[in-house]
Amino acid sequence: MNKKTFKETELLELKKSTSELKEAIISMASILNKHQKGEIYFGIKNNGEIAGQDISGKTIREVSKSVSDNIEPKIYPKIKDVLIDGRKCVHVEFNGNDIPYYAFGRAYMRVGDEDKKVSAKELEKMIVEKNKDELAWDKAVCKGAKTSDISLQKLKVFLKQAALKFDSAENSLKKLNLIKGSSLINSALILFAKNPEKFFPNAKLRCAVFGTDDASFIIDMQEFEGDLFYLIEKAQEYILKNIHIGMRIDGLYRVDVPEIDKEAFREAIVNAFCHRDYHNYDSVNIAIFRGRMEIRSPGLLYGGLTIEKIISGAVSERRNEIIAEMFHKVHFVEKWGRGINLILSKEPDADFKESGRHFVVVFKRKEKSYEVKSSEKSSEKSSVKILELIRENQSITVREIAKELNITARAVEKSISKLKLKGLLKRIGPDKGGRWEIIK
Q: In terms of CB atoms within 10 Å, which of 6, 214, 256, 370 comes out highest?
């Protein structure tokens, strides 16, 4: 080997001799925690210069014993003496997937060619990552649950929406990977149980409307229990019932326009139930204040995600992979987690924050700038009603319309003029004996 090929990296550590054995062991643990494999040479300086060292059978045994005594969990490296440029060196090759690894009771992480101590938070993240499948709530077996607890109607509706065939409850659940061995997992019950609240007291949605911008004056408060699909629909219904709804004319028809975009808040609702921490006893909460609406989901961001990362759309970590997969099958969520971008595309002023033990999506209400002036609002409503009356009777007169709507003839004429200008209505023939024609 040529000495110029030796340079310390995240996977390779160089030590001038086994006198630096303690530092080498720290490097081994550090590299294992980052890459789960690596190499160390004794007899090569950190600048790549081949120094060589005296090696005996005792030397190899000392390295092996020190590694065994001071790295936990234990690893079994390959240790051998090698000849490089005519000089003897010790080569140690190691690997292991049982992270985190500790050297002399401390955890380290490889950063470039340095070994950094792991903070308590980083260590917790490593442990959670290692055990995420075992800790995953949605994959855990639901003790005491039976196939008879599943609603066949709910399951059949889901399969139809997912373009899948029903083949008995058990077989269908197996195909959806909702059975582990012979036992139902939590996801099966939270999605399709007749009474999910029987198994999960937090299969719940809490909603409230407040008269101010804090929680001091409660106007309305409701709770809902049931499967996730039911709770998502109830959340949407509650919001639409308690925020301002404007309107616009689309062709011949009135179209309701909520002050907060419906796609945006639905996406936030779905995400709240999809990614929440179900180990947490709390429920998903919707709070509608005078100037904002908050959708609160139990559990902080998962897997090292930050607000900045989710907004950039660079990464997407899923706390509940099974639930996310089920939602994806019926097009509730996108596979690659672009929901945050969708929210921001519809509601650019939406805000995201972590508060206490909750992830919160905040939508600003548009009460002041959004509401149409009452006269304009009334005029639009009159136009819609006029079109409805004309559709029923093309020969109806202005006076008859005015009487039917309890408004003045002048107001009717004004609305008809606007409808003509918009190209929605025209008059065929004279005022007497003629008729109206609605232009499609």
A: 6
